[in-house]
Amino acid sequence: MKAVAQRDNEQARRESQGAERRYLAPDVNIFETKDEYILEAEMPGVPKDGVEITLEGNVLTLVGHRSDQTPGGEAVYRESRPLDCRRVFELDPAIDAQKINARVDQGVLTLTLPKAERVKPRKIAVTD
Amino acid sequence: MALIRWQRPETARWDPFRQLSTLRNEIDRLFEEPFSAPGEGMQPFMSGWSPALDVFEDKDNVFVKAELPGMKKEEIEISLHGDVLTLSGERKEEQKYHEGEIHRSERFVGKFQRTITLPTPVEVDKVKASYKDGILTVTLPKSEEAKPKQIPVKAS
Question: Is the N end or the C end of chain A the one with fewer CB atoms within 10 Å?
Answer without folding.
Answer: C
